[in-house]
Each structure stands twice: as C-alpha cells, then as structure tokens.
Give the backbone structure.
Amino acid sequence: MSAVVVVVVVVVVVVVVVVVVIVVVIVVVLVVLVVVVVIAVVVVATVVVIVVVVVVVGLVVVVKVVGLVVVVAVVVVVVVVVVVVVVVVEVGQRDRGTSDKAALAIAGAADDVLVFTDSSFATEVAKHDVILIEFYAPWCGHCKRLAPEYEKAATALKKAETPVPLAKVDCTVETETCSKYGVSGYPTLKIFKKGEFSKEYDGPREADGIVKVMNKEAGPVSRKLETVEQAQAFLSKDTVGVIGFFESETSSLAKNFLKVADQLSDVRFAHIVDEKVKEEFKKTEEGVTLFRPKVLQSKFEDAQVDISATSTSALKSSIQGEA
C-alpha cells in the first residue's frame, strides 16, 4: 500500500508541478503579450501623433504660404492696375495733345485761305499782284476733296519767298460775284493779277502742284536775259523755250508777247532787249523765236522756229502749235 501511496503522491506532485509550470508559462506568455500590445499601442500612438503633428504643421505652413501668395498677388494686381491707369491717362493726354495740335494745324491752314464776299471781292483782289481764287459750293464733293490740299497750299504759299494768297468764294451765298465771272461748275479756280481776271487755273489739284504753279505765276511771266551766258543757260534746259527779241519792253510786240507768256504757264518765256545779246543770235529786228532742246529735235522738228504772228491771239496760237 505504501508503494501505491508513494506512486500516487509522486504522480500528484508531478501533475501539480506540470500544472504550475503550465500556469507560469501561460502567465509569462500573457505578460509578454501584454507588453507587446502595450508597446504596439505606444508605437501606433506615437506614429499617429507624429502624423497628426506633421499634418497640422503642414497645414499651417500651407496656409501661411498661400496667405503670403495671396497678399503678394493682391499687391501685384494693385500695382499693375495703378500702372495701367497711369499709362492710359498719359496716352489719353498725348492723344488729346496730338489731336489739339492737329486741330490747330487744320484750323491754321483753313485760316490761311482768305474768304471773299460780293461786297469785299473787288477791293480785296485789288490788294494783290497775283491771287488764286476758288469758287465753290459747300455741298460739292470735289470741293470737299480739294479743301485740305488747297489749305496746305495756302499755308505753303503764305511762307514762300514771294507770298501768293489763296482765297475762296461760296457761290451759294455770293451769287453776284460768281455770276459775274461765269462760274457754272464747282470747284472753279481762277487766277487774278493786279485786280483783274488773268486766266483759268487748270493745273494740279494737290498742294505741291498748286504751290509750284502759283510760284511760277508770282514770278515774271518772261525772264529778261541780259547776258549771253544767261541766254545759253535758258536754252540749256530740256524743255521748249520761247525768246522774244525787242527794241524795248514797251513795244507793241513786247506787250503782246508778255500777255501770251502770262497765259501759257506751261511754256518757258524769256526776252532780250540788249543789243549785244541780240547780235549773238543774229537778230536785228523785233521778233519771237521758239527753241527746241536737242532731245526734242528731229527731221520733222526744227531746232528753232521763227514766229511771224504779232497779235496776242495769233502769237498764242502759233506758240501752242509749235510747243
């Protein structure tokens, strides 16, 4: 019996020891698990905290940066707006200044064209040796197109070495004057000299052309050649030249010659009264000769043609026929 008891006791002791060991192992495992869980929780919590902190800090930084960008953008926009306003104002002032200058220039040019009426026409025309007058109607399209060119020419001729005035007459108002000079179409331009009608103006209608023609009209209709050198220079041009050989500038033929020269502004005229110069041309009597330059000479066109006509109309017709 004692042996059985001993065995039982031993078995019980072994079982108890095993149970204790198992319990201890379980406790140790549980403790380890708890520690691991705690560590994991701490780690996770730490990571979460770090992430939260990073996110918060990032958001703060972003907000600050965005705010700074917004502030900078607002400042830039304000500066740009101010600059644009200043530029617009400056350009506007310059444009107004340019417009004002242009308006003043146009007004000044318009002021350079004299305005004649029925009551003032004769008196005003008589004041000028040479004057060009436009007879117009305000509704006339051709007159409107001519106006700026006519005004430019008036300004240029006013400043010329020998000033030539330009004037105008409104034929819808000043009917008496327009009727007197036979104006039937618009614009009609006429040249007056020493208070009297001289001839119709049929030259260019642009400013430069008007200036050129009227400068010629303002000069002597015929150039007086007093030396052989002057005569040679006159004939050296590449255009037809007409020379009158006279006893004096007051002879009957000389007067008719000068009248024709005044009427034919597209032909060059000169005259000689000096005996020595006339001898160079072998001219012993009064007469008129047309000279052609070499470029116009041919077997059909003589170098020079003596004009036998003496009256104004015949002389004019002969020169026109040969020129």
Observations:
- The mean pLDDT is 83.
- Strands lie at 113-115, 130-136, 166-170, 188-193, 196-200, 223-224, 241-245, 268-272, 287-291, 304-307.
- Residues 191 and 199 are 5 Å apart (CA to CA).
- The chain is about 60% helix and 15% strand.
